[in-house]
């Protein structure tokens, strides 16, 4: 990459118009988590699963997911208490290579964190997906993210048991599974000390009513169970790290040490964003 050219960002403003501006400016001012995909997810022929929508418990809105692998990673991020926003393909990065040719890449996934930093990620279906081109583009995007205190990652597929457990818990992510007044508190009290899942459920009441609340508590992190083994009635369940009603940001800026330096909260992109750039004519 030619460092003198720098990076540029292309995204759609709230009116659906393409905007191109300096990457450093866009990273500081644009709420990418609020934007539509800058381009549609491809639909490879012969695949059994194509683009769809993921309802995010974090935002209460839908996120476009381009593949089953991406949906699995959305499950992980949607459960992370430090994540405040999610979006699919909201930005295209542009740069010039060493020969002066314009290159571009659209990361599949965007996540905003409580400290104002963000993650750009790709979600390959296997480690070799995309081959050398994807790896080279990923290295450039990682450099662009480092410039603004963000991170880039290639999120490799989850282990099958973990993926299955998260998929199951995600089925109970909606707030309606919090249960009737007082039931969540009773469930948490039943697991104040680790015990087998079925014993705690039986201590609270009717499993038909209690189980959805238990799974919602596991999704939210109010309770904890090992997710690298299959969830079953004798699995040990105990107190989680989160407390209902308490913000993840209480007591400081969690995640600061591994997500990069903080930044000011971005403003929503609008028509006032600067159009045109050094790469526009290429």
Order of helices and strands: EEHEEHEEEEEHEHHEHHEEH
Q: What is the number of E strands?
A: 13
Mean pLDDT: 87
Low-pLDDT ranges: 249-265, 267-278
Per the principal axes of the C-alpha atoms, what is the gross shape? elongated
Describe the main β-sheet briefly. Answer: 4 strands, antiparallel
* CATH architecture term of the largest domain: 3-Layer(aba) Sandwich
Percent of residues in β-strands: 15-25%
**CATH secondary-structure class of the largest domain:** Alpha Beta
Helices and strands: which structural class?
alpha+beta
Give me the number of helical elements.
Answer: 8
The CATH topology of the largest domain: Trna Endonuclease, Chain: A, domain 1
Q: Gyration radius, to the nearest Å?
A: 21 Å
In which range does the helix fraction lie?
A: 25-40%
Span between N and C termini?
A: 15 Å
Strand order in the sheet with the most strands: 2-1-6-7
Number of self-contained structural domains:
2
Protein name: TnsA endonuclease-like protein
Region (Disordered): 240-282
InterPro entries: TnsA-like
Organism: Kitasatospora cineracea
């Amino acid at each position: 990459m030619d460092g003198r050219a720098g990076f540029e960002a292309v995204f759609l403003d709230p009116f659906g118009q393409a905007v191109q501006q300096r990457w450093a400016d866009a990273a500081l001012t644009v709420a990418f988590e609020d934007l539509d995909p800058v381009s549609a997810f491809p639909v490879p022929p012969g695949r059994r699963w194509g683009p769809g929508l993921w309802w995010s418990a974090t935002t209460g809105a839908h996120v476009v997911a381009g593949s089953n692998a991406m949906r699995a990673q959305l499950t992980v991020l949607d459960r992370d208490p430090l994540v405040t926003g999610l979006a699919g393909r909201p930005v295209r990065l542009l740069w010039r290579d060493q020969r002066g040719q314009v290159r571009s890449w659209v990361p599949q996934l965007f996540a905003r964190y409580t400290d104002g930093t963000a993650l750009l990620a790709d979600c390959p279906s296997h480690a070799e997906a995309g081959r050398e081109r994807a790896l080279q583009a990923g290295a450039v995007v990682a450099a662009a993210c480092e410039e603004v205190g963000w991170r880039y990652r290639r999120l490799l597929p989850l282990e099958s048991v973990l993926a299955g457990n998260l998929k199951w818990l995600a089925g109970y992510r909606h707030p309606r599974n919090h249960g009737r007044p007082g039931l969540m508190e009773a469930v948490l009290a039943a697991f104040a000390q680790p015990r087998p899942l079925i014993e705690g459920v039986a201590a609270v009441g009717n499993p038909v009513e209690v189980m959805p609340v238990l799974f919602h508590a596991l999704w939210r992190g109010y309770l904890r169970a090992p997710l690298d083994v299959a969830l079953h009635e004798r699995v040990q369940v105990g107190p989680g790290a989160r407390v209902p009603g308490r913000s993840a940001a209480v007591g400081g800026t969690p995640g600061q040490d591994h997500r990069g330096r903080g930044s000011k909260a971005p403003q929503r992109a609008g028509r006032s964003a600067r159009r045109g750039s050094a790469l526009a004519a290429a």
